[in-house]
Amino acid sequence: MLQVRDGLKDGLGRGITYLRVSVTEQCNLACVYCKPRTGSLERATPPVMSRNEVVQLVKVFTSLGVRKVRLTGGEPLLRRDLETIIAGISPEVEGRVHLTTNGIHLARRARALRDAGLSGVNVSLDAADRDTFQRLTLKNGLDKVLAGLEAARSAGLKTKLNAVVLRGWNDDQILPLARLAQSEGLQVRFIEFMPYRGNGWGQEQFMPAAEILQIVQEGLDAELQEEPVIGLEEGPARIFRITGSQGKVGVISTLSDDFCARCNRVRLTSRGELRACLFGNQPVDLLKPLRQQATHEDLVQLIRRTLIEKLDCHPMRRGEAPILSDGMWQVGG
Ligand code: SAM
Fold first, then answer.
1. Which domains does the chain have, with CATH numbers?
2. Ligand 1, closest atom to CA 27?
3. Ligand 1 centroid vs 88 CA: distance in angstroms?
4. Which of 32, 121, 123, 124 for mutating ligand 1's site (highest number of atoms within 8 Å of CB)?
5. How far apart are CA 314 and CA 318, in angstroms?
6. Residue identifier of the C-alpha nearest atom 22 of ligand 1
7. With pLDDT > 90 as the criterion, what percentage of the chain qualifies?
8. What is the pLDDT of residue 333?
9. Residues within a 6 A CB radius of ligand 1
10. At 209, is the secondary structure helix, strand, or coil?
C-alpha cells in the first residue's frame, strides 16, 4: 500500500487531512433548511456504497494522510451497519472517527457506536423548544434527541451541539440553546444558514455569525472568553468559553467570514463521489473505478488529480452562484 509521502495536498498546497463521508442520503427528518421546499421532492436513494466500499475508499484517503473522518448523511444512524463501518475505519485514523447525527436514534446506539471505535458525536439541534423543533424538522422529536444527547455523554463520547440559525424561524432559540450549553456544560455551535439546492435560502433568513454572537453576548448572564483557534480538524468555529460554566458557544461563519484559505477537508458522497468543495467543483466518481478493480495507485492518482482543481474559495465569495448539483443531504453537510 502506498504510504504518506508529502501527504495529500490540493492545487494551492493546502494539506487535506479531514474527510467527511456521507453514508446515506436517507433521512428521518425533513429540516426546512436542508430538504427542497419547492418542486418535486426527489426520493433519496438507498445507500449506494456497501460498508466494505466505504471502508475501502476511506482507507485510500487515510493512506494519503487523512487523519480524521466524520460520518454524516442523510441520517447516518439509519444505516444498521454503521458500527461495522466505524470499526473498519477507526484503526486507520487512531480512533479519530466522529459522527454528525440528528440524534433521533442515538439513545439506543450510543454505547455500541463507542464500542465500535467512535470518539465523538455532533448532534444537530436547532431548537430547545418542542414547537420550534417540530416546525423546523417536521417531526415531534425533541425528547428523543435530548435522550440521545444524554446517552452519548454517558457513553463517554465527545459531544457537541450544532444549530443552524434562520432568521424568523429559530433566532429566538439562540439564547435558550446557549443557556442549555451553560447549564449542561455542553458546547453549542451556531451555523450560518447556507444556500443549497432547493432549500429556500434567502438574505432575509440569513443571520450572520456576528449578529448571532451579539445576541449571545447581550443575553447570557455570563462573560464569554474566546479560545485560541486550533487546527481546522477541530472544526471551523470561533469558540467562546462561558465563564462560570463548562459550557461553550461557537459560531461558524461559512458565508460572512469563510475559512477557505485554511480549508483542509474534502467530502465523499454516499454515491461514492469525491467533492473537493461543498459549494464548488463537480463530483468525481470513485466508486465506479473501485468496482472496476482500479488499483490503489489508480485511485490515489484520481484523488490527487481531482484535488488539483479544488477551488481557492467557495463561489459565493466572488458573488457567484454555488455549484449545487446535489442537495445538502446528498453531499453530507
Ligand atoms: N442528519 C444528520 C444531522 O442532522 O446532523 C447529518 C446530515 S446534516 C445534512 C449535517 C449538518 O448539515 C447538520 O448539522 C445540519 O444542520 C447541517 N445543514 C444542513 N443544511 C444546512 C444549511 N442549509 N445550512 C447550514 N447547515 C446545514
1. 18-331 (3.20.20.70)
2. 1
3. 25
4. 124
5. 8
6. 194
7. 78
8. 76
9. 27, 33-34, 72-73, 75, 100-102, 124, 162, 164, 191, 193-194, 196, 199, 328-329, 333
10. helix
If pLDDT is split at 50, 70 and 90, which confidence band does 37 have?
low
Query: Tell me: the pLDDT tens digits for 41-93?
Result: 456 677 799 999 999 999 999 999 999 999 999 999 999 999 999 999 999 99
Instruction: Determine how β-strand 187-192 pairs with β-strand 158-165.
Output: parallel
Listed in sequence order, the DSSP H helices in the chain are 51-63, 82-89, 106-116, 130-137, 142-154, 174-184, 209-219, 287-291, 296-308, 328-331
For the chain, what's the residue count? 333
Q: Is the dihedral of CA 25, 266, 84, 55 positive or negative?
A: positive
Q: Nine-digit cell at 332? A: 453530507
Q: What amino acid occupies position 75?
A: E
**Which phi and psi angles does 288 have, rounded to 5°?**
-60, -50
